[in-house]
Design brief:
Two copies of one chain form a homodimer. By secondary structure, chain A is mostly helical. Chain A folds into two domains: about 45 residues, Orthogonal Bundle (Arc Repressor Mutant, subunit A), CATH 1.10.10; about 140 residues, Orthogonal Bundle (Tetracycline Repressor, domain 2), CATH 1.10.357.10. Chain A has eleven helices and no strands. In chain A, helix 1 crosses helix 2, helix 1 packs across helix 4 and helix 7 packs across helix 9. Chain A starts with 14 loop residues before the first helix and ends in a 10-residue tail after the last helix. The interface between A and B is large, with 46 and 47 residues. Chain B binds a DNA duplex through helix 1, helix 2 and helix 3.
Chain lengths: ~220, ~220
DNA sequence: GAAGAATACGAGCGGGTACTCACATTTGCA
DNA sequence: TGCAAATGTGAGTACCCGCTCGTATTCTTC
């Protein structure tokens, strides 16, 4: 049961085929958001997309393949947003960014990823994402962790930090951040005006040596 | 579709009936762990339990009711472990526990709950807990948050803390803790020997006023 | 032991599911 | 223009699902 094919079956070569594939993906996204995974059947997808089931199965070997494609699209877009935000943050003037500002920027970057198709993101994450055989959330988390670990190893950061294994600290931060940003009841937390500042505090206090001061922005 | 009954249909009055119900629950747990929610059908459950579908439907109005019963059993057991751990921690000598020790104890108590049927716990959490109309994880999180908020309002705690809204702080802590303890890749994190101490640090540093000292245990 | 209540049984119903296939239509290209 | 390849079609197949119901078995009570 884990040997199901999940890749695309045939590549669309003509423009109308690409339109079809796009319609299928969009319809799937809509149905997932509106009715959840269990009620999103291939027949419904085809109907909503305005194509026939047959066309659907020309490009996807089974239902899960569509969802996986959707997930990969989304993950790609979110990673792009994240990496762009981080680049914007660090590139312009390359020196002497206080740790707290860097963390604040990082949080901003992660929050930015939440703006990318939030409804679809939520449903994919909660209903199909992190269990099942293809653990894409795991991959996402690992990439984010690597990125944060690299940032933590930067000399500028090291200067303001206590002695700490960068990989371990990155794991802690990313996982804690994951909970705060995507866990249950995260909507309410994020909506709170104090949220961004407090999350920043949570992380910087953890990284800084004991006894360091911290002023409000 | 949200008006489905989820409570038990009929209470087992004889011993053999209780055996049947128990067999159904155990079979369901096994199938959930082995094959996931989607492949755990009532027919399969009955077969694995060594009873007939008819018997199954005598005690449960539908499939989800079984899962909910399983969830409630588990939640109850875990809560028991949690409360016992907390009692052990606080009862013996009732005064003057440093904040960091209290947090450490709380973390220990939560970690202890992870030892209760971890496989079942994981699958229930990830696959069925937090989507669908019955949002059980949400409920669990809310209860935990309330508990922590109450603890934070205790005068002993307040003394060592910075000025901070207890409800908000509790949310942050519970959500962050959730990510670290149950998020993707949490296994690896928790297995690390530094984990417990670092999580303790993460939380205490967040709660304490800036500039407070903290020694290793 | 008789009688009624509780329990157990499982074939089968209605319906939704994933997916196929023989055929129709459109497209690119010579 | 003609023709093969690409694409689109949707009725139909085989299957599995949740769940019911009439019947058989076992327990309790007197």
């Amino acid at each position: 049961m884990s040997d199901k094919e999940l890749g695309p079956r045939k590549a669309p070569r003509q423009k109308r085929a690409q339109v079809t594939v796009e319609a299928i993906l969009q319809a799937t996204a809509q149905l997932l958001i509106q009715h959840g995974y269990r009620k999103t059947s291939t027949n419904r997808i085809a109907q909503r997309a305005g194509v026939s089931v047959g066309s659907l199965y020309q490009y996807f070997p089974n239902r899960d393949a569509i969802v996986v494609a959707l997930f990969e699209d989304l993950a790609h877009k979110q990673m792009q947003v994240f990496e762009d935000s981080v680049a914007d943050l660090l590139e312009p003037r390359g020196r002497e960014i206080p740790l707290s500002d860097a963390v604040r920027g990082l949080i901003g970057a992660i929050l930015a990823t939440r703006t990318v198709e939030p409804d679809l993101s939520r449903i994919l994450l909660e209903e199909v994402g992190w269990t099942e055989h293809v653990n894409l959330v795991d991959e996402w988390t690992q990439r984010a962790t690597t990125l944060v670990a690299t940032a933590l190893r930067h000399p500028d950061a090291q200067e303001e930090m206590r002695a700490l294994d960068a990989d371990f600290a990155a794991s802690m931060i990313v996982q804690a951040g994951f909970g705060v940003l995507y866990g249950p009841r995260s909507e309410a937390l994020i909506a709170d005006p104090r949220f961004e500042e407090e999350l920043c505090l949570l992380i910087t206090c953890y990284l800084k040596p004991r006894g360091a001061g911290e002023g409000t922005s």
